[in-house]
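Standup notes, structure subgroup. Blocker cleared on the iron/sulfur cluster input:
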Amino acid sequence: MAEPDRTDYSQRIIDWLCDKVWPLVDSQKPILTVQLDITNACNLLCDHCYLPHHKNYGALTHYQWLTVLDQYERLVYKLRMIPAITICGGEPLLAPFLIPFLQEIRRRFGSCDLSVQSNGTLITDEVAKSFKELDISVQVSIDGPDAARHDLIRGQGNFEKAMIGCRLLGAFGVPFYHQAVLSRRTVGWIRDFFTFASANGATVMGFTRLIVAGYAEQLYEHRQDHPLVGHDLRIAMETILQCSRASGIPTNTSGALWHLIDPACTGGDNVGFAAFVIGYRGEFKVTSRAPLALGNVLEEGMEALFLRHPTMQHLRSNEIESCGQCPHFLKCRGDRNVSYAAFGHFFGPDIGCWLLQRCDISKDAAA
Ligand code: SF4
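Run returned:
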């Protein structure tokens, strides 16, 4: 591949990112994570899903996804970053080209971090064997630490199916981890989640905050569930860290607000800098949970959208309402999904933040 032209506008942005931005956001490993939503179809209908439907009309073909890979390969090279690829959906195991696509990714990107996010219900011997051969880790989403609580959210019988999938992954030596949605409904189950993950052989028990989008909007409107905010969120995050340390099962502490729980956690929200999502029709999305598409990579190109789209540039300008003035900003940045769900754009405050709710950001930081 030819050496990049350092006089062109994109290259000047790239140099600025590499030389000025990564050190500021404390990124010792400049990883560019892309989530590829290779299908919108799903065999489940979870009541908190951030997608509004599971129709798959207009989905890219395998050949078109290879074009997307071409673009990502060029971008990673230009940005001098490390590739990391997450395959998601819908349920990615419903995509008929999943395994050949993973083989192609592995061929191109060598030992890069490659994971598949699944509900775990469709894993077979053949799939687990292929995952092992391709050195893939699997997220098996779990929303309750037992059948009754998981199936309440994900549908009758799906806990047992996911457990069969986990046993197959374990039998073939495929590392798998769990992620649960953290909300008012699940907050009381945190200790049980870690007990379950430990007994189930998972490598990580992670949590992601409920975002009121897609199907979750109905859940919220009917008062069946609610995102945690303020003091409640702080206590939940502290409990997660305590349970993780007590059980010896790691948890995911990258993202907004973790720096407030433990100052050693420095990987804040990386939206706009080091992560983006390609939707099932090739849409370039800032995050998975915000439905906004900035364009289509097959028409406008991944590099142009990542480097030059005004929304991406605005995210990198640090002009974020309230958060931008916060002394924790560079280690936190606030959750941009939460801003989008609350305000319809990415540049508002993280309304879950307990410092904002107390309106004394600077005092807290000084304490
Ligand atoms: S105000 Fe924003 S940047 Fe500061 S701690 Fe809260 S969410 Fe993070």
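Discussed briefly. The CA atoms of residues 76 and 199 lie 38 Å apart.
Next: hand off to the docking folks.
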